[in-house]
């Protein structure tokens, strides 16, 4: 039996969370990579503090700044104030402890900051309601997104932008994909109930848990009976119109969730391509767990001559790099890492990949263009530009309910995704 993981004192957790938030907001670093470098002890708590702090970063930073007499030059202490304010908001039963532990965290970072942190946090407790009412008059603070992001969605989705922003600030559901090789979703639902895990069926092979659990608690997870995959991502394999014997390419395959689903759906000859060898190893691990096989290839999807054998594919999944604007509830750092000109950069990448992959598609074949973005420049506009340049391509209608054709916005059941199915005439 393994030893329980020791939980460090709150002051250490606040300090570690401050370093992580500072790394994201002020240094532009990816939160998951930052957290992966931290000790295992207390990492889950640090992650929770960071996720909460970044979901509400605009509000917390506005509250902090309203409580300061002068702008704070030390970015790490500024981040500590953000995580301290977040803890005060979610732990109203432990405000005394939170303030004291935040002060000790400040002392460990910059001894001069003890009094500052103590004063700011205690002043917040005295003025919380009035301060909050004042700062949320600013739209970016009220919604907790950069203003350019809000403006872009308001133009793209006049009737749905508020719901999309709200959904992006919620906790993401944990959704499972049942491996149809091992039985039905209804059968697995009974196994979950026997294990004390509550869930509801939301798709043909999709089960949404009432409360997230560790994968070790999922019956048969290690042997490939089930995978964790958002319901929106589970649409890709069915949309590809798969049947046995096809030659299929999964471009930009890592970490392999859609790769596994394709192989669960039909007996196909699948090549999984990714430009990052380390990420490709995650595809291998996923397939090993699912007891499925594919040909793995490391290469750039925009340069087929470096990895393609010249034999056309019947189906291609082009799950291209994108802004990930549809999955910010799972990755709240994305809101603060992205810049307006990043969207044009991603669009340029996509515009290079799509025609390159089109060369690899057999006549009569189908290519599914996919993103986890909700920005039109990466989605239908990208597809329209491609169709204008390729007379041998046509966009097929997709069944289902979409905000715009092929566009899912995040809601209580799925993240934001875009799909366009293109046929080669």
TrEMBL record:
Subcellular location, record wording: Cytoplasm
The entry's keywords: Cytoplasm, Methyltransferase, RNA-binding, rRNA processing, S-adenosyl-L-methionine, Transferase
Any single GO CC term annotated in Swiss-Prot or TrEMBL for this entry: cytoplasm
Binding-site residues, S-adenosyl-L-methionine: 252-258, 274, 300, 319
Main localization category: cytoplasm
Known catalytic reactions: cytidine(967) in 16S rRNA + S-adenosyl-L-methionine = 5-methylcytidine(967) in 16S rRNA + S-adenosyl-L-homocysteine + H(+)
InterPro entries, per the entry: MeTrfase_RsmB-F_NOP2_cat, MeTrfase_RsmB-F_NOP2_dom, NusB-like_sf, NusB_RsmB_TIM44, RCMT, rRNA_ssu_MeTfrase_B, RsmB-like_ferredoxin, RsmB/NOL1/NOP2-like_CS
Family: Belongs to the class I-like SAM-binding methyltransferase superfamily. RsmB/NOP family.
Pfam families given in the database record: Methyltr_RsmB-F, NusB, RsmF-B_ferredox
GO biological process assignments: regulation of DNA-templated transcription
Protein name: 16S rRNA (cytosine(967)-C(5))-methyltransferase
The SAM-dependent MTase RsmB/NOP-type domain, residue ranges: 164-425
Function field: Specifically methylates the cytosine at position 967 (m5C967) of 16S rRNA.
Entries under Gene3D superfamilies matching the protein: Helix hairpin bin (1.10.287.730), NusB-like (1.10.940.10), Sun protein, domain 3 (3.30.70.1170), Vaccinia Virus protein VP39 (3.40.50.150)
GO molecular function annotation: RNA binding; rRNA methyltransferase activity
EC number(s) recorded for this UniProt protein: 2.1.1.176
Active site (UniProt): 372 (nucleophile)
């Amino acid at each position: 039996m393994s030893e329980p993981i020791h939980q460090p004192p709150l002051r250490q957790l606040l300090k570690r969370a401050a370093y992580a938030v500072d790394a994201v907001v002020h240094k532009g670093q990816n939160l998951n990579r930052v957290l992966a470098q931290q000790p295992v002890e207390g990492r889950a708590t640090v992650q929770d503090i960071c996720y909460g702090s970044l979901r509400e970063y605009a509000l917390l930073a506005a509250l902090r700044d309203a409580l300061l007499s002068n702008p704070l030059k030390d970015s790490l202490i500024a981040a500590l104030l953000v995580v301290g304010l977040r803890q005060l908001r979610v732990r109203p039963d432990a405000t005394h402890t939170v303030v004291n532990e935040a002060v000790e965290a400040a002392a460990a970072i910059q001894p001069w900051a003890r009094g500052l942190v103590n004063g700011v946090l205690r002043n917040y407790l005295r003025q919380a309601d009035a301060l909050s009412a004042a700062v949320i008059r600013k739209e970016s603070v009220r919604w907790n997104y950069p203003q350019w992001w809000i403006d872009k969605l308001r133009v793209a989705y006049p009737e749905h932008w508020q719901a999309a922003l709200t959904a992006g600030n919620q906790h993401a559901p944990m959704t499972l994909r049942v491996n149809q090789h091992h039985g039905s979703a209804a059968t697995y639902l009974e196994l979950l109930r026997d294990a004390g895990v509550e869930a509801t069926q939301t798709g043909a092979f999709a089960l949404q848990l009432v409360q997230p659990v560790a994968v070790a608690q999922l019956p048969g997870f290690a042997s490939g009976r089930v995978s964790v995959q958002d319901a929106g991502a589970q649409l890709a394999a069915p949309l590809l119109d798969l049947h046995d014997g096809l030659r299929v390419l999964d471009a930009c395959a890592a970490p392999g969730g859609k790769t596994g689903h394709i192989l669960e759906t039909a007996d196909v000859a699948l090549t999984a391509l990714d430009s990052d060898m380390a990420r490709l190893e995650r595809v291998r691990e996923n397939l090993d767990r699912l007891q499925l096989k594919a040909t793995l290839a490391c290469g750039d999807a925009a340069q087929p001559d470096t990895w393609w054998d010249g034999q056309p594919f019947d189906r291609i999944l082009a799950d291209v790099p994108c802004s990930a604007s549809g999955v910010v509830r799972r990755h709240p750092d994305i809101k603060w890492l992205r810049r307006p000109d990043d969207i044009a950069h991603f669009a340029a990448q996509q515009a290079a990949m799509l025609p390159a992959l089109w060369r690899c598609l057999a006549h009569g074949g189908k290519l599914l263009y996919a993103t986890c973005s909700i920005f039109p420049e990466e989605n239908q506009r990208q597809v329209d530009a491609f169709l204008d340049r390729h007379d041998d391509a046509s966009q097929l209608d997709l069944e289902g309910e979409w905000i715009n054709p092929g566009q899912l916005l995040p809601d209580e059941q799925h993240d934001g995704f875009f799909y366009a199915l293109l046929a080669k005439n």
